[in-house]
Amino acid sequence: MNRVSNPLIETPIAREVGRIQVAQLLRCALFIAVMLLIWISLQPFADLGNATKVDAAAGRGPTYALFGFLAVLSLLLVAPRHAEALRSFVSAPYILFGCWICINLVMSRDPAASMQRFVLTACVFVVAATVLLLPATAREFNRWLGVAVLTFLAVCYFGVMMTPGLAVHQATDIYEYHLAGDWRGVFDHKNTASAVMAMLVFVGIYLTRSGAALAGPLISGLSVIFLFFTGGKSATALCILILVLAGLVSAARTFRFRAVLCLLPLIVLNLLSIGTVVSPALAAIARSLPFDTSFTGRDEVWKFAFASIGQRPFFGYGYFAFWGSDYVRDVDPGEAINDWVLIASHSHNGYLDSALALGIPGLLLMLALLLVVPLRNYHLAAEPGGPTPLANMFLRIWLFGIYLASLESFFLDRTDPIWFTFLVAVIGLHYLSRFRTTS
Hints:
- This protein is mainly alpha-helical and 439 residues long.
- The protein is built from 15 helices and no strands.
């Protein structure tokens, strides 16, 4: 007996299936586009021999419009299904830090500039908070993440092989020509490239342990090779350290022991770096150690930063309203300093820069939000039956970020690729401590 099709039944079903497929493709495209936009930026392969090059990280022009659009689009796609996850950010640490940011914007020495820059940071936070909610399952997340990372690595290697003048530091670079030969890929500095590659090593390890027998090892291998040729000694050393440290943290069972493992070495690192410029005793200890106690001249910047914090310890100078501004020339640090310090773009320490921008209260709130809360979230996520590979990936990226911040400044830095990748890890731990992923 022949069955007669019923369009009244089949058409709605077919339409629903079509909607699901279109929505899935849109979510996939948005996920991959966000990751590639952050890592590659709108202006990859900058010509460092050209004095008129534009700094894409400054967030001018299309960057604001694009991230505003992505924030709205991702919210529209995610909010109907994950409203509870988005509401979970309405918590004391985020509320208190948000209130202090509002106060800081008003009290900034350049309120207009601070407000403009914070708008982009807020859009980036929304994108980071929603991008992890775009995949419907862990399997989708793994596939999309693998495609995004391999595409990014392919672009970096293509640049090195086909246009080395724009992907490798040259002797003709206007600034830091002494880095000639170091790979930088799509980025404008080898330090950024090395940090991102180190983080991608952790992504490759996660994908390998999640069953991606081809993509995972390939990502880790390509990232390690690129990391080596960047010449990024700090990122390489930290990558190895974090692999060991994260293993110890994962094996620990109490929150107190995990806190000691994560934070005690971080405190020691900062005491023996920025602490040496305010304590003769710490400086004497650092001089006895087998490394450059001036940290390639960063100690002069740290002295200037500490003196400047002393001038405005409570409110700070405002969100990204200190370095590179006209106000730096007005600061009297109380002692002679090198002229080049006054044209520095940051202090090479994220914690110092946060105190400069947000004041000491803002720094403490940020430390609670970016150091204490993520560690607590990891501990909660690991409680049911031990940490998952995903939780361990986020842990490694988070640990790498808080240690790297002792040598570089990227906290709250708008579309900075290191900041965004770190932020995704922080938010990932936030979600894992409250919700369970599906396969």
